[in-house]
Sequence to fold (122 residues):
Amino acid sequence: MVVLALLQSACGGGSDEPSRPVQQVNIKVSWDTNREAAVNRAGGGYRVYYATAAGLALTDPAVTMVDVPYTTGSFAPVTTTVSVQSGRVYYFRVTAYSALNRAGQSGGTESASSSSFVLNVP
Fold:
């Protein structure tokens, strides 16, 4: 399960206000822990993908990817904060990975992505 939470917003009052300029808004993205050992050790972690277009083909150049690697402890982190523009709709997906892109090594895998989650940023 993926949870999206608005951390900071530049929201104003009612509809009688003049148009607001586009501002950056921080969104906290959280997901359930993947318990596979390869995700929860050096070289493993998660990737959060997001874009303003539905469909979210993860290889599309318009999609932004945030890497959330394992650092220490029993599990890789399961939250990250992304900065997006106000007044837009964003689509999010999360994947887990093991040992991707490690220098001098091959292998590693990235899971199928989560379902797409939508957030309309005020």
Q: What stands out?
A: The two ends are 23 Å apart (CA to CA).
